[in-house]
Every structure is written in C-alpha cells, then in structure tokens.
Design goal:
2 domains, five-stranded antiparallel sheet, alpha+beta, 18 strands, Beta-lactamase
C-alpha cells in the first residue's frame, strides 16, 4: 500500500515536471496556436566560431532564414527561404517604408478611436483617442516600440483607412517583386491566417526599405523619446532590437550585441515565433538577414552566424584599390641619360598614379573574394584609358598622362586621372618636342618662318649638284651626235 502511494506521488511529480518543461517551451495564444521553442536537430553539426565560413542550415534554430548582400541583392545563404511564414511585427518594415515614402513626417496626426481599439495582447505605444502628434514621432514610436495602435494610425493617415493601406501594402509587395506567397491582412502583423510572407520576400521588402535614408534612420533607432502631446507627457520607448544594436543594452556587457550592426526589427507571435530582420556592415560590405520562427535568444545567435558567414564570403573595395594592385608603367622618350629613380622606375620608366576626376567620387565594388580577384586580373576589361599627352620628356610629377574610365557593374561610368608619380628630365641635346615647337611658334610675332642658313645651304647644294649632273649629261649627248654625223673615209686595201 505504501509502495503504491509512493509510486502515485512519483508519477505525479514526473507529470508536473513534464508540464513545467512543456510550459517553458510552449506558449498558447488566444487562437489556440502553440509556440514551441525550436531546437537543433539531434545530428546537426556544431557551429564553430573559429570557422564562421562553415555554416549549414541545421546550425540555425530558425525555421526559415536568408542572408542577402545589400549592394547587388545576391543571396548568400538561405534556409527554407520560400516557405510561407508568419512575419509578426516585422510587418512594420513595410508600414514604415510606406509612411516615409508617401507621408510628410512633419504632418500632425490625430489618433482615431479605431486605432486604439486593438486586441489586449497586442504590443502598443499607449496612444489615446484624440491625441495629436507628428507623423515623425508616430513612425519612430511605432517602429521602436512595435506599437499596433501606431501602425493603424499611420495606415489611416496615409490611405484614409487600414483596409486601403493594406491594399497599398500588397500592391507595393508585388511591385517590388515579392512572390504570391506574400499577403498582408493588416498594418502591424498581429496574427491573421491570411497575413503571411516568406524570408525571401521579406528580404526584398527590407532591402528596398534600407536603401531609403529616412527609413534607415528609423530602423537604426532603438530608444526614442515621444515628446509631450495634447494628452500625455513625454515618454521613452525602447526596442527589443537594442540587444543586437547596443553594446551595453543597459548592462556592462551585452553578449548579443553584433559589431557593425546598423538596424533591425523584431517580431513575435505564438504562430510566428521570434523573428528578426537585421542590417550590418563591415569593411564596406552591407548584409541583410531575415530569421523567422527562432527562439527568444536564437534570433540573435542565428543572425550572428549568418552575418559572420557572409562577411567571410564578401569583401568591398574600389577601383583605385583594384588599379593599385597592378598599376600602369609607361616609357618616356627623350629622357636624360642619368635618369634613375628606383629599380622599377629608371631610364624613362614612370609609374602612373590614379585619382578621381571628381573629388566627391566614392565608388564601391562589392563581391566575393574570387570575383574581386578576377577583376584585379582583368582590370583592362572593365576599364578604358584615353591617353591625353605624348610620352616624351620633360615630365613633371603630377602631370596628367591619360583618363581612365571605369565601368561599374550597375551601369554608368566613373573617370579617373592617371598622373606621373615622378618627374623625368629631357636630354639636353635632344630634339624639341611637339609641344615645344608649338609653343615656340605661337610665341613668335613674325608671320614668316625665321631665316636660317641651313634652310638654304642644304637645298642649294642639292640643286647645284643636280645642275652639274644635267650639264654633264647634255655635253655627253652632244658629242655622241657629232660622231654619228661624220662620213667614214675609205681605208687602204691590199690584195694578194
């Protein structure tokens, strides 16, 4: 009897333990959807921070993820990127994008009763009906605090109603090139079975948004003060993305901070799991990542692994750096016989430096390590040089010898000056250069060529010799004719 009672107690304790464990891993929302914390597969390879260039899909907790190079839009890594997912509050990337594109941030917005009528489990700013604030404060507060009430207020201000704004969201998604697997049903991301997207499509939307300075300013803000309004005092709002963007995040050391992080937007519902869209930059390379349905901390670690992997693959450089890997050398004619500068620049050889024609030129070339190496080895195929002067001494340091035109991959042209990096003196007994002759002629006031004895002596001597030859030939011809006109005299003959 005692043993049976003990067994029942042990069973109850085990069931209680299992229930508590399940509660730690699962949360149920009002629709009955249960969030289950994602884990790594049993046989998944371990991620090695010393070798970030090795990344496999099973090394991420997220159910879906993608990593994109911002400049070209090239997909570097993906995991279930085309699988339909719920975006939660990352939806507000689209909402904010449309706000900064179609709205005037200095406009005053009055909050409607509809905007504050949101489900009780929504994230919110705490707006009040009739409250008035600028669209700027509304946009920043909404994005940072992830307020659903603010999203509805933005939608009504831009399009007149949330329904009309949702139509604009879907039209914009299609225009940007999103697939049929993206459909918005509200302006904020609160769970709706008809509100869905994919990691690949969210990357398309976020990349378009991050290319707009006004949006990037909003997305890079993780703490914002909403000024006092007609109904409320000033208040501070803080974003969950502070963990990824701020090295301290209210602590002495933040283990989830990512060096080079620029912007981010979080999201969570039981159906969507923990989501995060992030932008980071290192060495001139910008990467955009999306993780859907990860864990509360996994969204940071997943993003870190994606970013580290991408920064191992891509580098950023510029045409000047590519040129300087193998600069041009030219040979100057008419150099002084004692010309000697270095082992590589002697006896008329000059290395050409490069500088932009327009000082404000800032062209970045982003690509994989192999792509950049190919560009270096084939620089002449992506550039053209137009030489602008003769390669003849004297040459002064800084003289422009030609114009190099570079052809970026995204079209257009960029011009650079190729200039002499050292001076080269001319031979003292060398013939004058074309430039010297032109300068000498232009400086002469006499419209006629200057007289010089050698100009007459040489042709005169030639003419004199020619006359002598002609006279000699005429004399020889006259004597020959005289001989031919004589009658020959008979000669004596003898006969035997």
């Amino acid at each position: 009897m005692a043993n049976a009672k003990l067994l029942r107690r042990l069973t109850a304790l085990i069931l209680l333990f299992l229930a508590l464990g399940s509660a730690a891993l699962a949360e149920e929302d009002s629709d009955g959807i249960v969030y289950v914390e994602p884990t790594y597969p049993e046989n998944a390879a371990q991620w090695d921070p010393d070798h970030p260039e090795i990344l496999e899909p099973d090394m991420l907790r997220a159910h879906a993820a993608i990593l994109v190079e911002m400049d070209s839009g090239t997909v570097i890594f993906e995991k279930n990127a085309d699988q339909i997912m719920f975006p939660a509050s990352t939806t507000k990337i689209m909402t904010t994008l449309l706000a900064v594109q179609f709205g005037n941030l200095d406009d005053m917005v009055e909050i409607s009763a509809n905007a504050v009528n949101i489900p009780p489990d929504s994230s919110y700013i705490g707006l009040r009906e009739g409250e008035r604030l600028t669209l700027r404060d509304l946009v920043y507060g909404t994005f940072v605090r992830s307020g659903n009430d603010g999203s509805i207020a933005i939608a009504e201000h831009i399009s007149g109603s949330e329904a009309a704004f949702v139509d604009l969201m879907n039209e914009t998604a299609a225009m940007l090139g999103c697939s049929e697997n993206t459909h918005f049903a509200n302006a904020h991301g609160y769970h709706d079975p008809n509100h869905y997207t994919t990691a690949a499509d969210m990357a398309i939307i976020a990349r378009a948004a991050m290319q707009i300075d006004a949006f990037r300013d909003v997305a890079s803000t993780y703490v914002y003060t909403i000024p006092a309004t007609n109904q409320q005092a000033a208040r501070n709002v803080q974003a969950d993305s502070i963990n990824f963007l701020d090295p301290t995040a209210g602590k002495e050391s933040n283990p989830y901070y990512y060096e080079g992080s620029i912007a981010g937007k979080t999201g969570y519902t039981d159906a969507a799991g923990y989501c995060f869209v992030a932008l980071a930059e290192r060495g001139g390379v910008e990467l955009l990542s999306v993780v859907f349905y990860s864990s509360v901390y996994g969204r940071w670690t997943d993003t870190r692994r994606l970013m580290d992997y991408g920064f191992e693959q891509y580098i950023s450089t510029d045409p000047i750096s590519i040129y300087n890997e193998d600069p041009r050398y030219i040979d100057i004619m008419g150099f002084a016989l004692d010309d000697y500068y270095s082992e590589t620049e002697k006896y008329g050889t000059v290395r050409l430096g490069i500088r932009p024609v327009d000082e404000d030129t800032d062209v970045r070339v982003v690509g994989t390590v192999d792509e950049i190496e190919t560009m270096k080895n084939n620089f002449s195929s992506i550039s053209h040089v137009n030489w602008t002067r003769e390669f003849r001494a004297p040459i002064n340091e800084g003289d422009v010898m030609g114009i190099l035109t570079f052809y970026p991959r995204d079209g257009g042209t960029v011009e650079y000056e190729l200039y002499a990096t050292r001076s080269v003196a001319a031979r003292e007994d060398g013939p004058p250069t074309l430039e010297q002759i032109q300068a000498y002629t232009l400086a002469d006031d006499n419209p006629f060529p200057r007289f010089s004895a050698e100009f007459v002596a040489v042709p005169g001597a030639f003419l004199f010799v020619l006359v002598l030859i002609i006279r000699r030939l005429l004399a020889l011809g006259k004597r020959r004719r005289k001989r031919e006109g004589r009658v020959p005299e008979p000669k004596s003959r003898s006969y035997r």
